[in-house]
Amino acid sequence: MSDGPLIVLVGPMGSGKSTVGALLAERLGAPYRDTDADIVAAEGREISDIFIEDGEEHFRALEREAVRAAVAGHTGVLALGGGAVLDAGTRELLAGRPVVYLSMDVEEAVRRVGLNTARPLLAVNPRRQWRELMEARRHLYTEVARVVVATDDKTPEEVAEAVLDALELQK
Ligand code: S3P
């Protein structure tokens, strides 16, 4: 278990996993990896197309295998898609890992991603859909996380700093 990612970021879409993940990788001089990007590269199509063509269940299975490969083979910073924690097999793969939940309140979420229709799960009524999504997911993020870092009113640099502090990775 000592090999594997230095940090695994989970949290809802828009919580800054990619931006903060890239900053953390830079700070640690370690590579950055993102399971969404791994899936797009392996499948040769966008995530929204996978959802439309094959459904969410199929996407979650692809995501589980992407997480399995990444926790086994990646020793830097890893960011997961916002819904990865919905899959029990994926949650099992995260046990004992340095998982950080980047949390965000509902108003911040609507500001950051509410109008972004490229996010397939939030297209119609962002505020209500966000509440429902978080009711279904909050306990799962908390369950897999070693630490929780609130991102509201913080810059990506401040969030990265808070993550390093929380995991005691500061030099
Ligand atoms: C999803 C979040 C997305 C992506 C997919 C599903 C979700 O990742 O995996 O669109 O279910 O919340 P990001 O959190 O990186 O946007």
Automatic annotation (TrEMBL):
Segment forming the signal sequence: none
Pfam families listed in its UniProt record: SKI (PF01202)
Subcellular compartments: Cytoplasm
Binding-site list for Mg(2+): 18
Cofactor binding comment, as recorded: Binds 1 Mg(2+) ion per subunit.
Top EC class for this record: transferase
Binding, ATP: 14-19, 119
EC number: 2.7.1.71
PROSITE patterns linked: SHIKIMATE_KINASE (PS01128)
Official protein name in the record: Shikimate kinase
Underlying gene: aroK
